[in-house]
Amino acid sequence: MAIPEFTKRMLQSKLAAFCEARVPKMYRDQVRLGFEIRSSKTEIFEERPRFDDPSTWGRMRIAQIRYDSASGEWSLYCLDRNDRLHRYELEATG
């Protein structure tokens, strides 16, 4: 099920600010962060100019955020070196 519209707009705002803040302005011609929301999944990716054609940008997935509409909870997934997603679990400290 898709993310509720209000939650989607809030997610877009927060992720846009996150991506903007992560890459200093002086490097944005070399690297940029972005995201794409599809239904209940949001892909976060890095883009860089392609080596063989610097006028085009290549995209590499970094993470995925999933929304469970039944529980209202979010899950974060990271990618391994083989481009497979794994749920990211925070370790309890204390």
Would you write up a description of this structure?
The chain has one helix spanning 5-22, and strands at 32-38, 41-49, 57-68, 73-79, 85-87. The protein is α+β, with helices and mostly antiparallel strands. Strand 4 and strand 5 (85-87) form a beta hairpin.
Brief description of this entry?
Helix content is 19%, strand content 40%.
What is the terminal-to-terminal distance? 36 Å
> In DSSP terms, counting alpha (H) and pi (I) runs of 4 or more, how many helices?
1
Spans where pLDDT lies below 50 across 5 or more residues: none
The largest pleated sheet is described as: 5 strands, antiparallel
Order of helices and strands: HEEEEE
Rg value: 15 Å
Q: How large is the share of residues in beta strands?
A: 35-45%
Total strands: the figure is 5
Helix and strand composition category: alpha+beta
Percent in helix: 10-25%
| Sequence of strands across the biggest β-sheet | 1-2-3-4-5
Quick one: overall form?
globular
Mean pLDDT: 93
